[in-house]
Amino acid sequence: xxxxxxxxxxxxxxxxxxxxxxxxxxxxxxxxxxxxxxxxxxxxxxxxxxxxxxxxxxxxxxxxxxxxxxxxxxxxxxxxxxxxxxxxxxxxxxxxxxxxxxxxxxxxxxxxxxxxxxxxxxxxxxxxxxxxxxxxxxxxxxxxxxxxxxxxxxxxxxxxxxxxxxxxxxxxxxxxxxxxxxxxxxxxxxxxxxxxxxx
Length: 199
Description:
With 199 residues, the protein is α/β, with parallel strands linked by helices. The protein has helices spanning 10-20, 47-62, 96-106, 173-179, 181-198, and strands at residues 2-5, 27-30, 65-74, 116-127, 131-143, 159-161.
């Protein structure tokens, strides 16, 4: 059985592949295996809507099962920003560094609980004949005042999970992949794929 991971994001693709590697009965491919394939514009108002948008697009255009992730950072003190605009917080062509700089500037002067934040992830699974299902995960923590660490991507060098002292970018990849928002959502998706295989 083939399932397309509907992303071009290499960091995200690497994490998802690592989390799914135990499913030997499924061949996970990606848009990179289908030249010319492109993800649709993310027009949803929630992570769930965007995840479904991308997975459904992959299923409809390629005729295969698909799994897609939409995730981002939510800072309640910033009215939920960057939220669904996490990847383009500083503009459509923004780099991860641009987005982190904008976040630090927006949070200047904020202290204590005002620096609380959480990563949210929605993973959508879609298939032929209109099948769709979404799995969610959240990882709570706070934003530090300067970048720390060289691992990860996105906002990882600014985010410290509750009960930890290192940013996601300072943690070893296998540690981050065990405790992250994506891991929590993916564990639910893994259970679904395992049950589907047993049918």
